[in-house]
Amino acid sequence: MTSIPKVILKRRSIRRYQQQPVPEKTVECLLKAACWAPSAHNAQPWRFIILSNPQVKKALAEAMAHAWVQDTVLDDACKKPNAEAVKASIEKFTNAPVLVLMCISLEDMHTFNDERRRRAEHDLALQSLGAAVQNLLLTAQTLGLGACWHCAPAFCQETVRKVLQIPENIEPQALITVGFPAETPEAPMRKPLREIAYVNHWGNKL
Fold first, then answer.
1. Residue 74, phi then psi, degrees to nearest 5
2. What is the DSSP string of 122-162?
3. What pLDDT is attached to residue 194?
4. What is the percent of the chain where pLDDT is above 90?
């Protein structure tokens, strides 16, 4: 078995996939790994929707692209997507054999009367989901799959809810594209620890 540090170092964000289908049991394996992530209060706030139907993927991708364009109406001209960028934003989802929509539910999180602690609980659910995403990504790597973490749903939650008939108490947060990789990207640069880590107090560099 490959050691965890090696899997972490080998993992890449894969954006181009072979059209070979991913077996259902393999997708289930990814979700089981995600479910073993740590979570605040062991609330396990993650919820998943597997998307493999081409029509559903297309409908979702097109709706999110439309929401993106609408969001940029008041942006500077340089930030407005052109037709090519919109097409690419759709194809990065429709060309992946499987999408996994990562959502959170607050139903088992703690409840408070004040806004500060309610926000904190929401943040804890998001942190828990992030751990689940990483478990999924690393498991995909060990199984010879490629995957990429996209946060587009966080910008258009109502759009995603409408397309996939998701109830109001469930928050779409991320889409993971999954498939057999058709590219081998180089490792991106990482900031050295001396720039981002401190000992005992802020400013005392590692």
1. -95, 5
2. HHHHHHHHHHHHHHHHHHHHHTT-EEEEE-GGGG-HHHHHH
3. 96
4. 92
Is 59's pLDDT higher than 90? yes
Helix (H, G, I), strand (E, B) or coil at 100: strand
Nearest to 150 by CA among 77, 65, 76, 84: 65
Q: CA 85 → CA 79, 92, 114, 194, distances in Å?
A: 11, 11, 42, 37
What is the CATH architecture assignment of 4-196? 3-Layer(aba) Sandwich (3.40)
Distances (CA, A) of 110 to 34, 104, 129: 22, 14, 16
Decide: pTM greater than 0.70. Answer: yes
Residue 1 has pLDDT above 70, yes or no: no
Give yes or no for residue 77 having a pLDDT over 80: no
Do the beta carbons of residue 150 and residue 175 sit within 8 Å? Answer: yes
Question: What is the residue type of 157?
Answer: Q
